[in-house]
Amino acid sequence: MSTPARLVVLVSGTGSNLAALLTACEEAAYGARVVGVVTDTECPAADLARSARLPVAVVPLTNGRDRAVRAAWDLDVAEAVGTHRPDLVVCAGFMRLLGPGFLDRFEGRVLNTHPSLLPAFPGAHAVRDALAAGARRTGATLFWVDEGVDTGAHVAQVEVPVLSDDDEASLTARVKAAETPQLIEHVGRLARQMAAGER
């Protein structure tokens, strides 16, 4: 059987997508295993990783507005991730932009998921922005990370209707319910292709 693809997961939040990935990886046929978790802050996702006995690296960004600090942080995150020799890097609720110091090292291997039908509503408040714009549909996009803000090539999208009585909490919950299965499906597919030497 092919060696499972090695996943490093970047997190900043609750860890719901990390938990789903860990569950998926329990099945040998999924074709991947999480080998490390990197975060910019102590958070429930980091606690989840530790409880799963995964190595966790915390790389805080102390002043993201200072270019030199930001560039050094990118390299520190790259080093923390590179320690695990990943085949894929999965951003799962990671709330920092990754710069060239990171992306040059892992070009074409960094995935992110975003709660909108990109290119609509990029940025940190996608669900709120969709509601404010009166959108009738939104969803989630899985994409390859580049140096822009949610501008990378799309891997997959799933649509979610916006209901007349939706607020930010209700719409976020329904987007999340569609986003997570999409992430799990396509990470597994990419991992199996890598394990089989197809990529």
UniProtKB/TrEMBL annotation:
<comment type="similarity">
    <text>Belongs to the GART family.</text>
</comment>
<protein>
    <recommendedName>
        <fullName>Phosphoribosylglycinamide formyltransferase</fullName>
        <ecNumber>2.1.2.2</ecNumber>
    </recommendedName>
</protein>
<dbReference type="GO" id="GO:0006189">
    <property type="term" value="P:'de novo' IMP biosynthetic process"/>
</dbReference>
<dbReference type="InterPro" id="IPR002376">
    <property type="entry name" value="Formyl_transf_N"/>
</dbReference>
<feature type="domain" description="Formyl transferase N-terminal">
    <location>
        <begin position="6"/>
        <end position="185"/>
    </location>
</feature>
<dbReference type="GO" id="GO:0004644">
    <property type="term" value="F:phosphoribosylglycinamide formyltransferase activity"/>
</dbReference>
<feature type="site" description="Raises pKa of active site His">
    <location>
        <position position="150"/>
    </location>
</feature>
<keyword id="KW-0658">Purine biosynthesis</keyword>
<dbReference type="GO" id="GO:0005829">
    <property type="term" value="C:cytosol"/>
</dbReference>
<dbReference type="InterPro" id="IPR004607">
    <property type="entry name" value="GART"/>
</dbReference>
<feature type="binding site">
    <location>
        <position position="65"/>
    </location>
    <ligand>
        <name>(6R)-10-formyltetrahydrofolate</name>
    </ligand>
</feature>
<feature type="binding site">
    <location>
        <position position="112"/>
    </location>
    <ligand>
        <name>(6R)-10-formyltetrahydrofolate</name>
    </ligand>
</feature>
<dbReference type="InterPro" id="IPR001555">
    <property type="entry name" value="GART_AS"/>
</dbReference>
<feature type="binding site">
    <location>
        <begin position="15"/>
        <end position="17"/>
    </location>
    <ligand>
        <name>N(1)-(5-phospho-beta-D-ribosyl)glycinamide</name>
    </ligand>
</feature>
<keyword id="KW-0808">Transferase</keyword>
<dbReference type="InterPro" id="IPR036477">
    <property type="entry name" value="Formyl_transf_N_sf"/>
</dbReference>
<feature type="active site" description="Proton donor">
    <location>
        <position position="114"/>
    </location>
</feature>
<comment type="function">
    <text>Catalyzes the transfer of a formyl group from 10-formyltetrahydrofolate to 5-phospho-ribosyl-glycinamide (GAR), producing 5-phospho-ribosyl-N-formylglycinamide (FGAR) and tetrahydrofolate.</text>
</comment>
<dbReference type="Pfam" id="PF00551">
    <property type="entry name" value="Formyl_trans_N"/>
</dbReference>
<comment type="pathway">
    <text>Purine metabolism; IMP biosynthesis via de novo pathway; N(2)-formyl-N(1)-(5-phospho-D-ribosyl)glycinamide from N(1)-(5-phospho-D-ribosyl)glycinamide (10-formyl THF route): step 1/1.</text>
</comment>
<feature type="binding site">
    <location>
        <begin position="95"/>
        <end position="98"/>
    </location>
    <ligand>
        <name>(6R)-10-formyltetrahydrofolate</name>
    </ligand>
</feature>
